[in-house]
Amino acid sequence: MRLASAAYNLDWLENWAQYEDKLARWVSDAAGQGADLLVFPEYGAMELSTLDGAEVAGDLERSIRAVSDRMGDVQALHSRLAQEHETYILGASAPVIDGSGCPVNRAELYAPNGTFDHQDKQIMTRFEREDWDIAPGGPLKLFDTPLGKIGILICYDSEFPLLGRALSEADIILVPSCTEALAGYWRVRIGAMSRALENQCVTVMASLVGKNEWSDAVDMNTGAGGVFGPPDKGFPATGVLAEGALNQPGWTYADVDLTTIANVRRDGHVLNRAHWDEQCGRVETVTISSL
């Protein structure tokens, strides 16, 4: 299969048709390169707040609600594009005001037949907790598809090994991200590469990139697309299958074979995934007196 990871820049939108054209162009470009699975980044849907004008787009709480209110149209558009191009699409995540009244950070996975389901972020960053008031959503899910078993760890979630452990049956873990600074990009990238190592799987990181002075939420973004695997049999020695140029919008592609993942899990130079249960966690404190 061919995986496509987006480094996605936000635009100021004057009307819905402009968004439709933009998304159609992105999807068409990747599908035209033979991509079977397209991954958009975290909070890429925030550009939809510009459709309600500068006052709304520049106000954190109002921009969240404006984006959430448009998610029905967003779902219909992505579903149609997935069917037209016969590809899987992980749509850019969005703040969605759920039944509890608090927004969750939600990404939707669309199938080529037009059906879709979502994954909510599990652990919030300080900004999401303290400023956005974003709440944890539903549980982690494992999506069983013809491309293999797919899990989703949204940005900060990728930095927690026990969330990765919960998805140890996944062949591919998608990591949509939104990071302001270079350090944030590398935290998520290191998390994505770590999950690929310990689960002996492939991880796909998508990033939001560029400046957006109209927004208080996503005003500065640093990142790149990337696809990673375990540095073992059948994979590059670096574990990097593909990486895009930093802060350059566009797609990054990598070709992946499920057989390669199965082989490294069965007979790799190391068998990380098979040794989770040996991490008993016993710790003994030893005091060494000074001389």
Give an account of the 3D structure:
By secondary structure, this protein is an alpha/beta fold. It contains eight helices and 14 strands. It has helices spanning 16-32, 54-57, 60-69, 71-85, 126-132, 161-166, 182-199, 258-267; strands at residues 2-9, 37-39, 88-90, 94-97, 103-110, 116-120, 143-145, 148-152, 172-177, 202-211, 220-221, 226-228, 240-243, 250-255. Helix 1 runs parallel beside helix 4 (71-85). It starts with a strand and ends in a 24-residue tail after the last helix.
Structural features:
291 residues, alpha/beta, 14-stranded mixed β-sheet, globular
Could you describe the largest sheet, including whether it forms a barrel? 14 strands, mixed
Number of strand segments: 14
Q: First CA to last CA: what distance?
A: 61 Å
Global mean pLDDT: 95
Which structural class should the secondary elements be placed in? alpha/beta
Helix-strand pattern? EHEHHHEEEEHEEHEHEEEEEH
From the alpha carbons, calculate the radius of gyration and give it in angstroms: 19 Å
Helix-residue proportion: 25-40%
Overall 3D shape: globular
- Please give the oligomerization state of what you see: single chain
Low-pLDDT stretches are: none
Relative strand content: 15-25%
Helical element count? 8
Describe this structure in a few short sentences.
The chain has 291 residues and is of the alpha/beta class. The protein has helices at 16-32, 54-57, 60-69, 71-85, 126-132, 161-166, 182-199, 258-267, and strands at residues 2-9, 37-39, 88-90, 94-97, 103-110, 116-120, 143-145, 148-152, 172-177, 202-211, 220-221, 226-228, 240-243, 250-255.
